[in-house]
Amino acid sequence: MHTPISRKDAVQKLLRRARPAKARPVAPMDGVGLAAGLDAAALCDVPEHACSVRDGYAVRSEDVERARPSAPVRLEVRGCLRAESVDPEILEPGTAVRVLTGGPVPPGADAVYAEEDVREEDGHILAGEPVRSGWFVRAAGGEIAAGTVITPAGGEITPQAAAVMTRTRVDSILVHPRPRVRLMALGSELAKPGIDPAELPASGTARFPADNLVLLKGLFEAAGAKVERTGVIPDDRERLISVLSGPDLPEIIATTGGTGNSERDFAFEAALEAGFEPLFKHIDIRPGRNMFAAAHGNTLLFGLPGPPAAGHACFHAVILPVVRRLRGLPEPKPRTARFTQAINVRPGSEWLVQCRLEIQGSTLTATPLAGKAVPPMHGLAQAHGLAVLQSGQTLTPGDEAEILTTLF
Prior knowledge:
single chain, Molybdopterin biosynthesis moea protein, domain 2, Molybdopterin biosynthesis moeA protein, domain 3, 7 helices
């Protein structure tokens, strides 16, 4: 008889075994969605040189400090600088240069008049107001300075961070690859989703599509893993042992079904015969009590119960933190939501309750999808995550509880 392990102890045991793959170099655009193996920092200032943020005229502020509407200062315009201009000449006293947005502010100039703030006349501008030093000028490094950390080690590369890296001349960053996943639904009654029922063998057994494969593939990919293979294995112990004994196993294997107590529930024993080391056989959560976990080399095996709601619960409660660790991400801080309805759970285990999540103003709310009024599969279809409730706990509207979800 195996004593069920607590959810927290199960997660910590798994995290001690989970190690992200060695970080590898990729271009920033190819690293989006991956975790940085080292700090990724800007390699140059943006802008590289002081530039204008308006179409106008670059001037020396000291030349126009006495400008008044009744006595405008007249400056000769010498040339035009555009965004692509390089190495502008020094601006001489008493002169101005036409400069377009993004164009470099020449040495000697320290301010820019917007074109609507001056009057043009015969190759000159008439400035009727003084201008402060720095006016409409973006200093070198004014957007981002060289050496600024764009994404710290362990942070997820966002599209916007990748764009900033590219602009700051970062051509290679170190990232952890996505953990590879293989999914197997166990049961002779199952068919791989998408197969025409007419193509199924006439075995006399009523078959239905393995919905767990669709559920878990979506959950793993939403969590940032890479599902390489999915398949259905009938109730054939030797075939399962053969698959689990195969070469080049991925970082994660997840099976569904075969974890109960009948003669057809042999997933745990097959894993042991294939050389896997058991980590735990039962876990003290509902639903999902019959989940087990095992390890072989760098591969973690999760045996999930067959009911989809149980697989959904086990993924969020146990597997999601492991996926994050394998991706090189830090453990997230617990997130809570405020309940919109009352709920109570029976004593005996930690309960994972399906919930619909919404953001109302600045508050995350949870509506439980449980009880006789909500059929399990209908509730699963609407659920965005699960609330963690302790044995015998009662919540009233406005109470808060920990939420497990892939939404954030």
